[in-house]
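Hey,

The postdoc asked me to send both predictions to you directly instead of through the lab channel. I've kept everything plain text so nothing gets mangled by the mail client. Protein one:
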Amino acid sequence: MPKPTRVYLRTKEEEFRPLFWVQNNKPNEMLLGLYGVSATTPILRSMWPERTLETADLANVHYDWSSAVELGVPVDHITCHGDGRFHLKTRCGGDLYIQSMQRTKPLGPNTSTFLELVLISDLAQHYTASTRPVKYPHVWFGINQDQYLALRGMFSGVNYNVEQDMLATMAQYQGQHGGIVLTSGTLKGVLMAHPKTLGEQARQTGRPRGTLLSLKFPVGPDIWHLKTFLFG
């Protein structure tokens, strides 16, 4: 079984803070997991109301912290199944699988972009630095402790040119972005990110502690369904 690729925030030369991991654990199936801010089991703290938007409107999505609904559910990982099912797997005694979605087509090596994600980290200083050597395979983004990471990811079948989709999207944003291509088995992904400094207004609004993750699923021609969560 392929090993997960771990993504770290590198705040010093030998200081790595785990952020999330991705694994193409078997043909046409992908797992995505977040690390808790304290490097323990991540807690799905809250969720924003779901949205369905046209492609042209995706770049203008904003998140009002006051509109999020508290949940408090420990989560193991997110699964993208080969038959097109998506869900969150929990670590609680209640419902094992939550937040399900169903694509109309299964995943495979020729599948176009089947998932987009936007990840906004907390300030790097709030994530616990790993006390063990970083595990292979891994990638990292250099960042100052008082910055946060703005990351965008796209995933497709291995034969699809998702890199072109990503470049077309990132052309809308200013600044230099570091890029990573993840390829394993029949699926691949592209991650692009850059560190940002929290503005004074954001500091004053009392942003909740944790990692914001917005998942975007294609549900029709140029139509996307959004599920947005805050993990602590």
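Protein two:
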Amino acid sequence: MKILAFDTSTGSTSVAISEGQNIIAYTEDNNISVQAERLVPMIEETLANANLSYRNIDYLSVINGPGSFTGIRIALATAQGILLGAEMIGSAVTNLEIAAYRARLQVKEASKIAVFLNAFRGQLYVQVFDTNGSAQAPELVNLSDASEIIGKLKGEIICTGDGIPHIYDQLKSHDKLLILPRFSKIRAFHICRYINLAIENKLNLNAIEPLYIRPPDAVVKPIAK
């Protein structure tokens, strides 16, 4: 089972191909200004490095948010284009899910995993996961809300995500809280391994659709009659 995954939801572009849990090719570009131009060449470069073509890939997966509006659209449009001409199964996964998955690999006995991602503008994207895989709906909250969110959770809690540096002073005094600040960057090979486990465990895969938690800045005004 071969999986092609890519991500342009943040400041970098990454592409990976896996067979099972084994990553057989990986490419990364940290130049944010060329994502639209570089993504397809990077996919084809990664396929060439693995001595594969699109017809050899069984699954395609992509990050659908939260993150850069433009980056998410680039990745989703590319994924949909590939799927039109290739016989593979497409799926999407969120940055929040991947962060929780990576934390769960490190600490297996926590009751909850709280993921805080930097949403900028003094805000965070937040999602709380149970160890059984279920999750609360993702939210957009203010930085000042973090302590209250953690305070409502019971049991051993893992806290992770690239928003942690902005709220560390709020969280460090909470009991039964393990902070994992290392898992701040998501790369395509994490997506491959997550999707591989999801397939093996016969979990439902998300459709390739965007996850927009923050409402758009631009508002369409009705035309005056």
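Summary for protein two, as requested: The first strand starts at residue 2 and ends at 7.

Thanks,
C.
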